[in-house]
Amino acid sequence: MTITHKRVVDEAGNPKEAIIPWEQFVELQEVLGLDFTPDEEKELISARRDLEEGRWDSFVDREEIRLDLNH
Fold it and tell me: How far apart are the first and last CA of the chain?
């Protein structure tokens, strides 16, 4: 991913901030998972815990997802 940005520097020329296009900011949030609601974060944490503990009953096989998408 290439990030287009403008660098903001202080009086001594030291970088202090970066300004990026809004679309890239939103994409970064999505990639980093920072766009989740608190409820979605709780669900993700719970799913990871289930996965780590070997509980698969909450997960859907990807073949089932493909079937659902075709209807």
Answer: 34
Residue 42's φ and ψ, nearest 5 degrees, are: -60, -40
More confident position, 6 or 37: 6
Cα gap 28→64, rounded to integer Å: 30
Looking at the 3D structure of the chain, how many domains does it have? 2
Range of the structural domain that residue 5 is part of: 1-35
Q: Is the pLDDT of residue 44 over 60?
A: yes
Identify the bridge partners of residue 19 per DSSP, sorted by sequence position: 6
Rounded Cα gap, residues 33 and 67, in angstroms: 27
Decide if 18 contacts 6 (C-beta within 8 A).
Answer: yes
